[in-house]
Structures are given as structure tokens and as C-alpha cells.
């Protein structure tokens, strides 16, 4: 039986993988990995949530502008190559299952909303907002074409703490994407300052795309005023 964690670490070190933050986290041993049975399955989502809950509770005091941490979940099923739309459907089903549990107890992070149509959207666990990066074997982007379904959860606070360093990292990532994958992900160049939810699955969404996620939180009173929630790039 293959080792999902070893597969993940090998993938992060490939030429095609573009995220320099994840490479830094791997080097520092700050990637937290969880492996679950089935993407989009209620039992797997409950197990995944338990692990994410502990991670979200612990991450805030450990963040700094010199650190990069991420939680990466991998899944045994579905196996084989999924189409991008099917992966997107399962990804959002899985996130909805987690959110439905979490929102019974926890609310919103400061400055964020869980409304997927808003530009300051973040996926919330334990009151901490995350930017999600979906990966799977059928991705059209080589930087997201992992050997099995996977989801990376990157703290939005982590991006904010980087300050101007973020833009240097963004430039480096996009140059790497262009060199190794032929172009920057068109989802970011087309919809960069609109809905972060468009970027979660990795596919290029249609102009009239509607995010298949329903927030259980009360609407946020915070209005979008800067690019701080738009920083993820890959």
C-alpha cells in the first residue's frame, strides 16, 4: 500500500509544483497531514473536522511573518482520475459537511465572511479562516495534479502577516508557474479580485458560476476594503 504522506512530500518537491510556501513548510517540518477514506463522505468529513479543529485552535499563536504552516488532507477514494467538475462537486460537498458541523459552535474570523460570493470569503474552522487549494489527478494545472484527491488549508492570517513579503512570494510563484507550467493559472488572472471560492478547486470556472456552498453563519458586518483576503496565488 502506498504512503500518502510520502507521495505528498515527493509531489511538493517536483518541478511542476509551484507553491513556495508549501516547500518552505516541508523544509521546516510544519506541514500537518491527515488521511481519510472518502472525499465527500459524511464519516470522513467528521474525522477530518476533528483533526482540523485541533489544528485551527493551535495555529493562531504559532503564526508569524517568518513561518508557513499548512494542513493537507489526502483521500483514499475516489480512486482513478476524476474530471475537474466532479472533483469540484465532491470538494464543496466535503467542505459543506465540515461547515455544517463547525457552524453549530463557531463563528467568523475577524475581517472575513463565510459567504462564498464575497471577496473576503474564507473557509472557517473554529473561527479561523482558510484559503483552500484542491488537488487531484485530473487537474488541468500541473501544479495541482496530485496522485490522489487532496485539500490544502492555508491560514489567511498567515498571508496577512507576510505583509509586503507576500507580493514578492506571489511574483516568484507566478514566474515559476509560467516557466514550469506554461502560464499563470487563468482563474487568478481572470477573477483575482472577485470570489476566492472560484479558485478552491483549481479549475477555470465559467463567468456565471455559482459556488455550491451555503453559509450557516450570520452575514458579516465587515465590508471588503483591501486585497488582504485575495492574496493566495496558486
TrEMBL record:
Biased composition (Polar residues): 222-234
Pfam families (alphabetical): YqcI_YcgG
Region (Disordered): 215-234
Cross-referenced InterPro entries: Uncharacterised_YqcI/YcgG
Residue stretches spanning the membrane: none
NCBIfam families the UniProt entry points to: GntA_guanitoxin
Full protein name: YqcI/YcgG family protein
Organism: Amycolatopsis decaplanina DSM 44594
Organism lineage: Bacteria, Bacillati, Actinomycetota, Actinomycetes, Pseudonocardiales
